[in-house]
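User: I'm new to structure prediction. If I give you an amino acid sequence, what do you actually give back? Let's try with this one:
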Amino acid sequence: MSAAPAALLVLAPAYLLGALPWGLWVGYARGLDVRRHGSGNLGATNVYRTLGPRYGLLVLALDAAKGALAVAWPHLGPWGAAFPGGAEWAALAAGLAAIAGHVLTVFAGFRGGRGVATTVGVFLALAPAAMGLGLAAFLVAFALTRRVSVGSLALALVYPLGIAGTVHGPGRGKLLAAGLLVSALIVYRHVPNIRRLIRGEEPRIALRGGAGGPSRRGEDRP
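Assistant: Good question. You get back a string of structure tokens that encode the predicted 3D arrangement of the chain. For your 222 residues, that looks like this:
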């Protein structure tokens, strides 16, 4: 298999896997279009706010799982080994394609979430210790503030440091570069949240069904 077909067979399925709008489909299964409620986005936080913890956590798990599955995809056939740079590059590229699919999903007018849950799945597969540190940072920040956006920003800042500290070997540089790129994307996608945090207007989230503040367009989008 030549490099060009291999790249297509790696990247296209990974993007489509990442683009699966689980938040939209879970909402439909419950008779609700989540784009018309809360923040209007397809991420797990909006599903949590509009449908409750059970469905919010389900979407969170599904969005993370598609990231991990995208990383595994290149190893399931000859397209991974034939990808330019080999299977390791293919897995990393597939993970990035899945994150792009989540953020810009073709199934919902290229308007998806902010990529946090899918990023968690991708880097749990690629660098589990580093993402474990990122998840710990998320939990601490969320426990202190009850704001998903603060937890997401903490995760985005910590897991690249985790890559730098826990990953060794020849693939470390490209993995760190990818981690920094996706971290910057998450921070950029949270700029509206950062502005609301500065103004003291960022809503909290309740731990038991429902929001801890007013629901409106532009809230957290994991």
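You can read the tokens as a compact description of the fold. Here is one thing that stands out. Residues 209-222 have pLDDT under 50 and may be disordered.
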